[in-house]
Amino acid sequence: MFDKIFNIGLKDLLDSMPAEYVTLKEALDGKVEIALNNGLKHRFDPEELRKISQSIPLYLWSLVRIPLIFVKLPSPGEYKLNGSEWDRRALSIILGKENSVLSGGQMESLLRQYKSLIFITLSHDSISGSDRTEDEL
Length: 137
Description:
Layout lengths: L1 H14 L6 E2 H5 L4 E3 L5 E3 L2 H10 L9 E2 L1 E5 L5 E4 L3 H11 L6 E2 H11 L3 E5 L1 H5 L9
Parallel strand pairs: 5-8
Antiparallel strand pairs: 1-4, 2-3, 5-6, 6-7
């Protein structure tokens, strides 16, 4: 029974992820709506697009894809960007430093500024608990 409930919840989570992405330039040019896997639409906040475009250099606008997808890692309060090298470069510019793993505080700060431009999902390890030691199993 629990497995069935878990699978339904996991399916809903995955169905709510983006089915398409746009470049920052495309979004600034007016493509502010994308489709999700469940058929619904997600709309980017034009003010958040304006704000992020002021932080990211013009040469990256055609290379950075939004929404930015972050993966919740098994360790408490740790997140990682799931994106291209250009997405990671843009993130390091926004944060003012290179980070492969973001803290909960950094993630909260990004969400406060760019909530419509960010999606968060779970890593396989977070779901399966594969970071456990044999003693914990």
